[in-house]
Amino acid sequence: MSQARRIAFAASVAWLSRAVAILSALLLIPVLFRHLGKEELGVWLLLGQSWVAMGVLDLGIGPTLTRRIALAKGKSGGDVTVPLSEATKGEIADLFASGARLFIVIAVLTFGVSWTAGYFYLRQIPLVHVSWQSALIAWSVLCVAQAVSLQATVWSNLLIGLGYVGWDLLVNSSISLLTIGFQVGVALSGGGIIGLAIVQAIGTALSRFLLVRLVKKYQPEVYGIRGRWCRHAVSSMAGPAIRCWLTTLGGVLVQQTDQFFIAQSKGAAEIPNYRAAYLICVNLTMIATAVAGSSAPFISQLWQAGCRDQARVLVVRGFRFGLCLLFCLLAGVLVGGRELFMLWLGPGHFAGYPLLILFSVIMVCEAHSFIASTASRATEDEVFAGCYMAAGMLKLLFSYVLLRRFGILGLAAGTLLAEGLTVYWYMTYRALKRLQIPFRYHLRNVLLPSIGVFLLTLTVSFLTRNALGRFGDLSRLASVCFTCGMGFVFAFWFLVISSNQRRKLYTICLNWRRPLPTGGV
Predict the structure, then answer these.
(1) What distance in Å separates the CA atoms of residue 514 and residue 442, rounded to the nearest whole number?
(2) Does the predicted model carry a pTM greater than 0.85?
(3) How far apart are CA 3 and CA 73, in angstroms?
């Protein structure tokens, strides 16, 4: 498979896998809203989000190991299909062996630290309809699941670093879809949060098992990599890994602490509506940035091989694709928000347009800074720990002050203010400087066209929705979704793909019904 096709395949798989997993997870939410008590639902959302946040306990080893493997492969050449030299094979083998041992230790430490912290925190939450013992059992099961997940991370690091992007996503998204299906059954049968946690743990263990089996069967040269503990490699990763961990920790403080503030000040029953609005926006952002995230190992390989112009092309296309898609998705949410929440969760669960607007602004800035930092960090530029930790500290301060004064709107405003003062501007400045992309070029070729797509899509969607005012919620929402989808198709055709790719696609569309030639292939 050529380099261009490998990159296109990886981006497509990453986007589709992420979209399927996220959309299926969003389908679980209304079932939980309707079949769990309000307090029980709040506790599950609290535990589930805390379980996701435990990923920070990998101490930054995972992203650093992936990048080092990609950089090691880049020493043999910039093409993803280039044969590996013996020196490169030995370096990758030692990195994998060292990472495997590190993740065993990290998995054990993660279970101990997270279970202990959860034990003491759950005893402090005022619970009426859910016993803290049930919450503790569910948390214990989730801690085991996270430990298993961390121990298997090294296989994903190896595959992604070598350029086999998409394998782990296919496995994880498939098992995630299956897990959510069983969780729906548990919720409908009254299994409660303990049943939901057990299904989550089984799904995590199954993902780990299937990933290793697939690698062994279909990529024996990858599975057969054997190395030794390399103290020099581990010590050289220590500095970047710590900075990566601090960056992730700052992001967790910013994005994953709102539920704790709400639980302490207003009770767990107030979490669901706020969390539902946040989940819509953050999941759309994850879908939009999946392609840019999957490009990181290819950027590393091109950068290491000296192919800087090709790396910059990947970065610019990642910006255009991610921002245009997110703008179109958020335009649909802002125009059809009330109908969306009514059909999704039922009456009484729409948190309001002011909160939705705040979340939308946060996610646009978040997506832009994520794409920028991902590209910059792919070149071994791990320098964002300070600004993210500063954002985390400011977030805690602003949340405490603004929540008491303005309620949940103040909580969201605290996130925007904290990151706006630190992360959003610095990540963009640093990434553009590192990648040698002039800001004027970025403004003219990325930001202004993306904003234009948003304004056009928002306006047409709003007019379409109002024109169908006498129809039902489903019809109005469907018209908004169609308009936003066409807006992204327009943006993808004229802004994301090149003129040469447009000609090829146009030719394929013209010839798709032409009969096959006779005489065999």
Answers:
(1) 42
(2) no
(3) 14
